[in-house]
Amino acid sequence: MADVGEVLMSVLSTIRVPKPGDRVHKDECALSFSSPESEGGLFVCMNSFLGFGSQYVDRHHARSGQRAYLHITRTCKAKEDDNNSGSGHPPKKKPTRLAIGIEGGFDVDQQQYEEDVKVVILPDRQEVTSDDLGAMPDVVRERVRYLVSFLAREILFSDSVSHTLQVQQWDGEVRQESRHAVDLKQLDNGVKIPPSGWRCEVCDLQENLWMNLTDGKVLCGRRYFDGTGGNNHALLHFQETGYPLAVKLGTITPDGADVYSYDEDDMVLDSKLPEHLSHFGIDMMTMEKTERTMTELEIAVNQRVGEWEVIQESGTTLRPLFGPGLTGMKNLGNSCYLNSVMQVLFTVPDFQSKYVSNIDKIIDEGDQIGIAPRMFKALVGRGHPEFSTNRQQDAQEFLLHFINMVERNCRSGANPSEAFRFLVEERIVCQQSQKAKYTQRVDYIVQLPVPMDQATNTEELQEAERRREEGDSSALTVRAQIPFTACMAALSEPEILTDFWSSAVQSKTTATKTTRFASFPDHLVIQIKKFTFGLDWVPKKLDVSIDVPDTLDLSSLRATGQQPGEELLPEVAPPPLMTPDVEVKAPVLDDSTVSQLCEMGFPLEACRKAVYYTGNTGIDAAMNWIMGHMDDPDFSAPLVLPGCSSGAGTTPTESLCEEHLATIVSMGFSRDQATKALRATSNVLDRAVDWIFSHLDDLESMDVSEGGRSAAESEGGREPPPGPRVRDGPGKYELFAFISHMGTSTMCGHYVCHIKKDQQWVIFNDQKVCASEKPPKDLGYLYFYRRVAE
């Protein structure tokens, strides 16, 4: 082996010092999920700062020519048993902050490690030790030792990618200073608030009371989804007066209080709170806490006994599992939704064969430490307003987001999302003429409604509600029992459309809409629509138990198409609402309102129509329009102005950005191709470019004219391009996985998944993988079925 001094001198010129902004990948291999805790440790290139596992570092050396690597290995320290009452250590403290991985928050059970760091020179993996440096000639020893130790230290103490992305912890209690705090208007109305004995000035409620910091009105808070809380009088007062800030009485202490900004719709900080309270005779320094803060209430709700314990199978000793397909995924701070979805997807053969050449290699030996998908989370969330953050997300929305990414990047090869893709047929029958209209659309998820009026334990629910209203704190929580057959009946029964424009009678009339499967996918995803809005537009979650079956036969829901002797509605457009000589201009829409509606999960075009038809009057009016038109057959159809021509499935050309069109045309594509790309990607330039390059094989057929027909079709040539490719087969399925949610809404809580492997149910709770003793199939949120052979 070569002299270590000579080797070091030969590689010094290739070693770089990390600069501000350099991304140092010292926590995870760039080509696998290996980490410093993995066997062989992690090798960080001292030039590019990319990290590689032991099995991939030689490959990087061969391709890049780099030889100097910082070798980092970590071994677990012995862990003391926190539950050992004889250990002399106090028990774990209960969480006091709505946070993960920080002081006072929920414990993420972080492991402590001993770290060993050395410089390694490839290809012989020659280690440079302190003894090697000491044996070098004096003339070079000091210089080399200083340089090597300095460079290693700089790399080791540079912020890692995971730290830069801030995915190690999450704090849901971080509050911002209210913009109203500094210059808050306070009325000199003589109001003085006593230190106790408060009541709502409208309904005499004695709890959940808020004092408005402008006029001193004491009023009750919002009504919660379960009927408790208040009667919304503080909110109504803000809507009448516009006075923005209120403090929760009973939470005032010398350290602060709960302050809510109705205008900013969030808990906030008030740096002048002592002064604002003193205005109404309240001495903050003498006040004592008598009510739970909003954080304490949220923690209590998130830890409610029943749902959390049952879904996580707490209270039973679960047997840990290891091996192929049984590797856990570490929670990076509210990443449980991603972990659960990806665990299920990679049990589907299409995804395994597409993305994992040898899935058996992704295993853990010995103790289950799990993998930390930091770079994967950063990749799939890049540019997305929600999935790029550390906030909790809806697993169903993430599943669709990931499928959309797969669709955009698999045009030229195998597309694993085809396993979930199916066609839906909608049949609308005009009740006056009895003529029908058939349309088809692509979908990936069946959204199953929850008919609460079909609960089989109505008497128990009513009794629990009565006891709650009487203030009986000992009343047990009763979960509604909903038959799965009732959910399926609600899905398949005809909808009544009361404002349907019939081309047969040339007027608005009543119609019925029936939805059926035009094809059955290989794998069927069913979403239980547990999340909804209350009458006050506050999101809530239905606490229900549904007897979801292990096997499912949907054959009776297959679409039949046009019936013998059935007449179709004429293809005639509705009459224009404006005279032809009136110039129609593109609508000027409030982008912020459109974005807020889209973030709630509504289709883009529906949001645009809501803002347009309510005249840009705000989020409340637009939301009311959406809730009143969700059953419209054209709810998600593009916004088309009277007098504007628009091809089927497109938006008006006027709504597209001319600058984006010009950019794509300058790349060598036709205007029609650029138009279709922008329409397919909601007018987002980066996505449109990605989309058009993913459709190179179909460029000829996607040359759409202004009238919506292809050039070949207009010339009587080829047939129009075929529709989306779907698989079809029998509608008989078996359950193989389900994802469950714990908490009050998709914005908080926790996700786990259960997957059936070799006839054994397995629970994946982030990095913990165990044999399931009693899978809670009745409490799931997303259910995954696979087709069974007849």
From TrEMBL:
Enzyme nomenclature, EC number: 3.4.19.12
Residue ranges annotated for the UBP-type domain, each copy included: 176-284
Family annotation (InterPro entries): Papain-like_cys_pep_sf, Peptidase_C19_UCH, Ub_carboxyl-term_hydrolase, UBA, UBA-like_sf, Ubiquitinyl_hydrolase, UBP13_Znf-UBP_var, USP
Chain residues that bind Zn(2+): 200, 203, 220, 233
Gene3D superfamilies documented for this protein: Cysteine proteinases, DNA helicase RuvA subunit, C-terminal domain, Zinc/RING finger domain, C3HC4 (zinc finger)
Family listed: Belongs to the peptidase C19 family.
SMART domains on file: UBA, ZnF_UBP
Active site: 336, 750
Keywords: Hydrolase, Metal-binding, Protease, Repeat, Thiol protease, Ubl conjugation pathway, Zinc, Zinc-finger
GO terms, molecular function: cysteine-type deubiquitinase activity; zinc ion binding
Domain of life assignment: Eukaryota
Binding site for substrate: 210, 222-225, 260, 262, 265
Ranges of Low complexity composition bias in the record: 705-714
CDD domains with a match to the protein in the record: Peptidase_C19B, UBA1_UBP5_like, UBA2_UBP5
USP domain residues: 327-788
Domain UBA: from-to ranges: 588-629, 655-695
Catalysed reactions, semicolon-separated: Thiol-dependent hydrolysis of ester, thioester, amide, peptide and isopeptide bonds formed by the C-terminal Gly of ubiquitin (a 76-residue protein attached to proteins as an intracellular targeting signal)
Region described as Disordered: 704-729
One record GO biological process: proteolysis
Signal peptide: none
Protein name: Ubiquitin carboxyl-terminal hydrolase
